[in-house]
Structure formats: structure tokens, C-alpha cells
Amino acid sequence: MRGEEEREYVEFVTTRRPVLHRAAYLMCGDQHRADDIVQATMTALYRKWRRAREADNLDAYVHRMLVRAYLAEKRLGWARVRLMSEPPERVAASPPAGVEERDSLRTALARLPRAQRTVLVLRFACDMSVDDVAAALRTSPGNVKSHTSRGLAALRDLLDVQIHTPGRKDAVG
What is the pLDDT of residue 173? Predict the structure, then answer.
């Protein structure tokens, strides 16, 4: 890569990395796996930078690469390896405001089918349009709308069940 191309690549990665990491984390639910997915995406982008920078919508192009890296990582056997039989105990400190809602949303997202979760993350966490998501996933806009509708309905049901579960201190009614 030449000096100017490398500068453009570094600038792009520096500005977009936090957004890509957030999207990867919301898709996979694990900070370390999200790091691996983003790193794989950035490596692939570096190799294909000349072609990528010519894309009509570079962000959609890179989000498509991120989704592919997520799906490829998901298929790997080592992704299911757990190094501990039990998760370590956490000392419960008073969480900052909004943490419980965020955790509830992440838990609900993790329970959705992969396609619905991916579409919702790209649409709402990455603020992509229906057409951009369709291009990133190489599917039709109608399919994106369908996954969005079903995913939002499932999220509402999951979050409603969590809020109204008897015995929870935050239960309503």
C-alpha cells in the first residue's frame, strides 16, 4: 500500500473501529470475541483496501465484511471452548444507572435467531438503512424488513417477560 492509501486506511479504521466493535459485541455478546471479529475485519480490509475504497458505500462494505467475519468465527469449533467449568463470581457493586436495562437488552438480543439479531444490530446500533443492511447481508430489502419486524416483536416479548416476571424486585404490578 502506498503512503496516501495507508493514511486513508488508518484514518478510516481509527474513526470506525468503536462503531464496528460495538456492532460485533452486540452480535456475539462477548468482548474478546468482538475484538477478534473486528481484528479479522480490519485485516481483511487492509488486504482489500484498494478495492474497498472504490465502493459506493464504504461503511456498508465494511459492515458486510464484519458480518462475514462474525459468521466465519461462529462456525469455528474453538469459539465454543470454555476454559472454566464455572464463571468466576462477581462482586456486586451498585451498577450505574441504565446498566440493568442494557443487560436485559443484551440478554434478549442473545436469545434471538442470528439473522434477526444481526439485522437489528445493523439497523439500530449501527444506524444503517434497510437498503444498506440488505446490501451488507446480500439479501432483499423485504427480507431485512421481515427480520426487523419479527426481531422487534420477539424483543418486545422477551423484555416484557423479564419486566413482568414475579419475584423480581423490578417487576411491575
Answer: 39
Q: Where in the chain is the domain with CATH 1.10.10.10?
A: 98-173
What is the residue whose three cell numbers read 439479501?
A: 139
* Element housing 31 (H / E): helix 31-47
Using CA atoms, how far apart are residues 97 and 85, in angstroms rounded to an integer? Answer: 31
Q: 98-173, which class in CATH?
A: mainly alpha
CATH 1.10.1740.10 location in the chain: 1-80
What is the CATH number assigned to the segment(s) 1-80? 1.10.1740.10
**pLDDT tens digit sequence for 87-125:** 656 555 555 556 677 788 888 888 999 999 999 988 988
Quote the radius of gyration of the chain (alpha carbons, Å).
18
H helices then E strands: how many in the chain? 8, 0
Sequence-distant (6+) residues with CB within 8 A of 125 are 22, 23, 26
pTM for this entry? 0.59
The C-alpha cell that represents 124 in the structure block: 439500530
**Cβ(121)–Cβ(26) under 8 Å?**
yes
Look up cell 488508518; give the residue. Answer: 10
Q: pLDDT digit string (tens) for 66-96? A: 999 988 887 775 555 555 566 656 555 555 5
Residue 38 CA to residue 50 CA, distance in Å, equals 19
